[in-house]
Amino acid sequence: MTKFHRQFFHGLFAALLAFGTSSLPAAFQTPEGLTLEASPKPVKLAEGGRALVPIVLAPGSSEELKKSAEELAAYLKRITGAEFAIEESAQPLGITLGTLSQFPDKELEAALAIKETYDGLEAFAIRSGDGVVRLLANTDLGTSHAAYRFLELLGCRWFYMAPEWEVVPEVKDLSFALNETTRPDFWSRDIWFDRVTQKEEPDDPKALEIFKKWARANRMADSLKVNISHRWHAIPGEYKEDFEAHPEFFALVDGKRTPPQFCVTNPGLQKLMVRYAKDYFAKNPDADMVSVDPADQAGWCTCDECTKLGHHTNQPFYLANVVAREIKNTHPGKFIGLLAYSWYSQPPDFDLEPNVYVQLTSGMNASKFTFDELFSQWVKKCQHMGIYEYYSYWEMDRNMIPATSKVNRFGELEARMRNFRDNNVNSISAQASNNWGVNGLAYYLGNKLMWNASADLGALKEDFFNKAFGPAAAPMARYFNRLDLSNKPLAGSALIRQSVDDLEEASRLAAGRPDVLARIDALKASLVYAYLGLKFDGTREEAEKKQALLDWFTWSYRNRNNYMNGWITFRSTMGRPAAEEMGEPTWFWRNTIKNPEASPWRKSDPVTSAELTAWMETIRKEIGSLPSTAAKEYSQDYVLVKTDLLSGGETKVIFTGKADILLASADGAPFKFLLNTRDSGTIARPDAKYTLSSLDGAVITSGELPDGAHNLELKVPGPGVYRFSCLRTGPGWEVAIPPDLPNALLFPQGEKTRPSHLTPKFFYVPKGTPEIVVYADKGSSLTFRGPDGEEVLRKIADGGYLSVPVQEGTDGRVWSLEGKFRNLWFFNVPTVLSSRADQIFVPRELAQADALEIVLPR
After folding, report:
1. Which of 14, 113, 592, 764 sits a CA distance of 20 to 30 A from 34?
2. Residue 497's CB: how many other CB atoms inside 10 A?
């Protein structure tokens, strides 16, 4: 849907809510891109701040339904200013809230039919006409969904967890005329924060309640209650006498019976696991699933019988099958759950019982296969499957910008969700951090797509920008799009500096809108957090580093209740090492439980708008101006040019991840060089995957390489310049290219090319270049030398832009760069680092413009 169509439908939608549909089309596009039927007879709900209808419950309704009615009445009052009475009736009247069994409707029975036990438990229908709005579902949970969806259709939003991100319109004269029937694409949808959603915290006592409210309003819930936590480490404690009497129940590791993993072929252990499952269901009769998942570490069994099972990944699933066969007879309909994760991430060699439920993790998999490869195998193997996503955890992004989870790659998020849905995935459990400043939009959009994977992500984003930021929608769209990983943002001070400009412009445009300014202030506070973290990372002197860490701690604590930066996770993860490294025991919160105020970072004075404005100015001054030199884009049509310099030596580089290398063949001879895929050790990693392509992208040859040294000989169709790409995660790979084979490293913008320390590499500076503007990830070490070998700049990058001055007469010549860096990018010069000084790779148009002697292609 184009932007014009979205704006058109938004206008119609607003008119529909305010005036009904008597003169409007019979179908309407909602802000998330759905087409809903419009009732020909709008139901008038309120007029002049006076309620025209009551909220109706069936006699004897549950407490859950009464709570839904109360919440609905409260929001309708905020919208219209009217008091909506809650009444009981056996017949639909006013705004009727209930289940299909309470208010039967033959026409809705098929639409809300429950399939496969779980599909439909949360389904609901909204019907309007003849003076009644009916919010009906199969269950109380579905009815709650219907109520909040009704409010959403009236314009309410619950974007982020904190209360200031709630949007409630004010409409004194309110009518409604929409019909919708819907059910979730995934039976279980869960975004969870381990230190917030499981218990209350003294530093944040309302977090659990507020999160549950956000989840309820956004219909994040489950029809199937998935239970797949690690269990093998805990079961011995529950059956202590059995395990003490039978140490052989534990895995045989290095010749010794060693907990926590099990010897899955031991008959006694198998019987105990069946008993454990039955005991669990006896204690939890409403549970849908019992977990038989291994402990979160390696240590599979090496006894003779377990070894006979084949690959060690077979072991947990073999035991799951044993338990499942018993449980399907004694507890039909119940599932045996476990992850596909770490050392047991790939499917077993045998079929699984129908009641075994597997949840594949999207990372942390010690397997020779990538996640996509594992997924394609599991969907063929498993009858019931879920996905365990990593939306965020401390080590992943440290709450800094940009967030690094795939869920923030919005250009791929729709396809990812639809691929899951279309391959019969029915649950998604997403581990996350309570860091809405960097991940909030991803959490919101991810949850929306969990309900309806066909929703229009562009429309959802536009709705977010418009409703959350009103007059400041344009700069806020720019701000969030800048952080979208699909757009390959460059992390560090440059990104923070650009974000300051976006937020300050938004504040000016939102003057007079305190609701919008509160949201912008929350994002400013998150940006200050990122800046303080960047300063801590870049500080080397001990006393300054200690103060920088204290500043970071203090700021995080002061902003703990806006949920922008995940204070509880920050406190728990950073506290102990900070106390030990800085020699400050009171910095670790557990050391001050009896005297909390002893912690020096515990400053409770609220952050003010004026303080945030001052911080924006401080950041602007300390980082400085952005480059004035215009960025230049060059083609990927590279040529090899000749210079009068001496040649370089062998190229020998270790890479982690992906790298792209240009290679040139003068006479069409094959490329011969050594590629060593470094040893993975006991943790399996995917094989190295390589391709050799022409510059137009046509693949000439490709392959996969296991651990070990490989003498490659890659044939080419003729003389020319080619692109060699290789990807290997984990321990990485090493390439050794002989000196007579011209080659160059490419550094595409925004991609994490991670070489080891590079000896001098050579690049061409176009004629008329006044300065070289460079970006490199923070911590990168760079040494630039001019054409005569003199050092021009030596710098440790902080993720900002560096300016390398080009003196008169040194342009139009070859420079060199050495150091250790990743995600290197020249803003206005081709980022092509050649290993030979006498033969340089440059884009064809540059060679022609500067009259360089082209060697290849002739």
Report:
1. 113
2. 19
Q: What is the mean pLDDT of residues 254-272?
A: 97
732 φ/ψ angles, rounded to the nearest 5 degrees: 85, -160
What does the alpha-carbon distance between residue 155 and residue 14 come to, in Å, rounded to a whole number? 9
pLDDT at 752: 83
Q: pTM here?
A: 0.93
Q: What are the DSSP E strand ranges found in 606-650?
A: 638-642
Q: Are strands 801-805 and 754-755 parallel, antiparallel or unpaired?
A: unpaired
Backbone angles phi, psi at 473, to 5 degrees: -60, -40
The residue type at 94: G
Largest CA distance in the chain: 94
Q: Which of 261, 323, 317, 247 is nearest to 294 (CA)?
A: 261
**3-class secondary-structure state, position 28:** strand
Q: How does pLDDT run across 831-842, given as a tens digit for each residue?
A: 999 999 999 999
3-state SS string over 450-518?
A: HHCCCCCHHHHHHHHHHHHHHHHHHHHHHHHHHHCHHHCCCCCHHHHHHHHHHHHHHHHHCCCCHHHHH
- For tokens 């342009």, name the residue: 811
Residues composing the chain: 858
Query: What does the block give as tokens for 414?
Result: 């729709």
CA atoms of 150 and 45, how far apart (whole Å): 12
Cα 711 versus chain centre, distance: 38
Residue 768's CB: how many other CB atoms inside 10 A? Answer: 10
Residue corresponding to tokens 């073999």: 318
Each residue's pLDDT tens digit, 711-726: 999 999 999 999 999 9
Confidence band (pLDDT; 50, 70, 90) for 27? low
Q: Which amino acid would we find at residue 545? A: K
Query: For residue 122, which phi and psi values (nearest 5 degrees)?
Result: -110, 5
- State the DSSP H helix or E strand holding residue 27, giving kind and residue range, or none if neither: strand 27-29
| pLDDT exceeds 80 at position 656 | yes
d(CA 357, CA 375) in angstroms, rounded, equals 14
Q: How far is CA 265 from CA 232, 256, 339, in A?
A: 15, 16, 19
The pair of three-digit structure tokens given for residue 366, joined into one six-digit string? 């010690």
CA 815 vs CA 44, 469, 721, 766: distances in Å: 74, 47, 22, 11
CA 326 to chain CA mean position, Å: 38
Cβ(523)–Cβ(564) under 8 Å? yes
Q: Are strands 384-390 and 425-432 parallel, antiparallel or unpaired?
A: parallel
| Inter-residue contact 228 to 339 (CB < 8 Å) | yes
Query: Cα(83)–Cα(219) distance, rounded to whole angstroms?
Result: 25
Please report where in the chains the tokens 């050092």 appear, as a residue.
791
- Cα–Cα distance measured from residue 447 to residue 431, given in angstroms and rounded to the nearest whole number: 13
Taking residues 556-578, report their average pLDDT. 91
